[in-house]
Amino acid sequence: MAEHIPLDLPENPRLTHNITHFARALRKAGLPIGTGRVIDAIRAVQAAGFTEKRDFYWVLHACFVSRPEQARVFAQVFRLYWRDPRYMEHMMAMMLPAVRGVQEERAAQAAEKRAAEALLDGVDHEIDAPEAGEEETQIEIDASMTISREERLKTLDFEQMSTAEVAEAKRMIARLKLPVKPLRSRRTRSSLAGHALDWRRTMRGTLRHGGELRALSLKTHRTRWPNLVVLCDISGSMSQYSRMVLHFLHAVANEKGAGWARVHAFTFGTRLTNITRHLATRDVDQALAAAGAEAQDWEGGTRIAASLRAFNRDWTRRVMGQGAVVLLITDGLDRDTDHDLSREMERLHLSSRRLIWLNPLLRWDGFTPKAEGIRAMLPHVDAFRAGHNIQSLEELGRALSDAGDSGEKDRLAAML
Question: Which domain of life is it from (predicted)?
Answer without folding.
Answer: Bacteria
